[in-house]
Amino acid sequence: AAGVPGYFLIGALDERYRSENITAVFEAGRAAGAPWVLSIDPFQHGPMIDFHLMFDWIDAALAPRPR
């Protein structure tokens, strides 16, 4: 999975253990060169109002792929 782009999302009010688990996996993957990003959603996984951040990342992740 380290070669697959990943978008990790943590809700601002998620349980601490969940945030720590996701952060640990993310950091280990990034240390191995994984093309992953981590975002903390201040709206606790509610309606996302910052789709532009996710879509910009998706566009960047897909750009190098052959068509």
Which features does this protein show?
67 residues; alpha+beta; two-stranded parallel ribbon
Question: How would you characterize this protein structure?
Answer:
Helix content is 42%, strand content 18%. The protein is built from two helices and two strands. It has helices spanning 16-31, 51-62; strands at 6-11, 36-41. The protein starts with 5 loop residues before the first strand and ends in a 5-residue tail after the last helix. Strand 1 (6-11), helix 1 and strand 2 form a beta-alpha-beta unit. The protein is an alpha+beta fold and 67 residues long. The model has no long low-confidence stretch (mean pLDDT 82).
List low-pLDDT spans.
Answer: none
Instruction: Classify the beta-strand content into a percent band.
Output: 15-25%
N-end to C-end Cα span: 21 Å
Overall geometry comes to flat
Alpha carbon gyration radius: 13 Å
- Biggest beta sheet summary: 2 strands, parallel
- Helix and strand pattern: EHEH
How are the strands ordered across the major sheet?
1-2
Mean pLDDT: 82
Structural class of the secondary structure composition?
alpha+beta
Helix fraction, binned, reads 40-55%
Total strands: 2
The number of helical segments is 2
Fold blueprint:
Layout: E1 6-11, H1 16-31, E2 36-41, H2 51-62
Parallel strand pairs: 1-2
